Amino acid sequence: MSWEIKVWHEEAGERVRMAIEATPNVPDEVVSTVASAYWLEQIQVMSENWEDAEPVGPAPTGLGLHG
């Protein structure tokens, strides 16, 4: 069994459009996790406005991904 997931984004002014293509056999949880990780790493952290953002508190404990 193999899965194929493609994720990319486009910037349109002050908005970001994220697109996901996946084969139908990819579980919903996998698509959701990949989308969340991509959004955090590629859009929020890499954003030019990141330096202007307010500081975020400490990460919650006891949460994590299990596979």
Order of helices and strands: EEH
Strand content: 15-25%
Shape: flat
Based on secondary structure, the structural category is alpha+beta
Q: Counting H and I runs of at least 4 residues, what is the number of helices?
A: 1
Distance between the termini: 16 Å
Mean pLDDT, rounded to whole units? Answer: 78
Global Rg:
15 Å
Strand order of the largest sheet: 1-2
Biggest β-sheet, characterized? Answer: 2 strands, antiparallel
Q: Would you identify the regions where 5 or more consecutive residues have pLDDT less than 50? A: 63-67
Topology of helices and strands:
Elements: E1 5-12, E2 15-22, H1 28-44
Antiparallel strand pairs: 1-2
Short description:
By secondary structure, this protein is α+β, with helices and mostly antiparallel strands. Helices cover about 25% and strands about 25% of the residues. Strands 1-2 form a two-stranded antiparallel sheet.
